[in-house]
Amino acid sequence: MLSPANTPAGMKVEPLVSLENVGVRRGGRWLVRGVDFSVSRGEIVTLIGPNGSGKSTSAKAAIGVLKPDEGRVARIAGLKVGYVPQKLAVDWTLPLSVRRLMTLTGPLPEADIMAALEASGMAHMLDAQVQHLSGGEFQRALMARAIARKPDLLVLDEPVQGVDFAGEIALYDLIKSIRNTTGCGILLISHDLHVVMAETDTVICLNGHVCCRGTPQTVSRSPEYVRLFGSRAAQTLAVYSHHHDHTHLPDGRVLHEDGSVTDHCHPEDGHHHDHDHGHDHGHAHSHDHAEAHAHAHADGHQSHGHAHAEAHAHTHTHFQSGAKSGEDRHA
Ligand SMILES: Nc1ncnc2c1ncn2[C@@H]1O[C@H](COP(=O)(O)OP(=O)(O)OP(=O)(O)O)[C@@H](O)[C@H]1O
């Protein structure tokens, strides 16, 4: 495995992609600002945050699909990106087999198609119609498609959407095994504020900017969590909790915890208090988190404790971005 943890001590690894103070402005307002994070080979970075908090925007800026209005994005030369979008622009009235899905945007050697489907547990569904796949199978097919071109960086936008709890664990297992066998870097997007993959090296919590970051606290030590979800779940999932200190109003302005309202939110505006949960919220909280998780899954949606009333649009038509270097893209 090529995890940074396994690289020889003192050896500096150049990140596959790094964002520095990135801001994206559209329609007269900042969608995200002050975003900085990097993803290295073998590393799993998870972006969490409520709906509309800028996760997809930040990921798109990272892979070069979207040009930032401020800040810098650097990518290693020739970076190959596999992108599993949140939504697909597919005409569901036309028949589409899994095999065809694999080659929609370009031919692939048969051996690579089969190896990717094999790795994703989908080889037996080669001729199945995509329309008939379950949520979990569909995500696996998309993942197979993304890994077939052997990317350096795999970007997964909400890979567990529409997937039940057991399927979620299985998908996280698959993501872990992709990382372990290929050594690629993984940027994972989740709107679930309570649960992230245990293997996540860094969690970046977005709320229009980086609200907090840290290592996820594993809950495997919490007897309550194990009792609720079983030891298998406890081995696979971890919990990362946080608190948002501001609310985005429908008109784009920001209501802060102290009652003041500003036009934008920005880490430097004096209203934000970053929490490094690696320090602030340790194991003592794991019992509460496990309960939060139980509720989230029992009623089918999460309570974020954060009102975000904005409508948002998705443009998720890219399967795969053959991003070259960031400088090329931004020239
Ligand atoms: N091209 C655009 N023009 C204007 N606003 C946009 C554009 N793209 C995204 N937005 C807005 O930017 C905000 C962030 O969107 P983004 O899709 O990055 O959020 P997200 O955290 O990924 O949300 P979700 O969890 O709902 O997918 C949203 O309020 C969205 O409406």
From TrEMBL:
Name of a matching Pfam family: ABC_tran
Does the record carry Endoplasmic reticulum as a key word?
A: no
Q: Where is this region: Disordered?
A: 245-331
Q: Where is the ABC transporter domain?
A: 17-232
Top-level taxon in the UniProt lineage:
Bacteria
- Which regions are flagged for Basic and acidic residues bias? 247-313
MF (Gene Ontology): ATP binding
- UniProt xrefs under InterPro entries: AAA+_ATPase, ABC_transporter-like_ATP-bd, ABC_transporter-like_CS, Metal_Ion_Import_ABC, P-loop_NTPase
User: Which controlled-vocabulary keywords does the entry list?
Assistant: ATP-binding, Cell membrane, Ion transport, Membrane, Nucleotide-binding, Translocase, Transport, Zinc, Zinc transport
**Family per similarity comment:** Belongs to the ABC transporter superfamily.
This protein is called Zinc ABC transporter ATP-binding protein ZnuC
Specify the species. Answer: Rhizobium mesosinicum
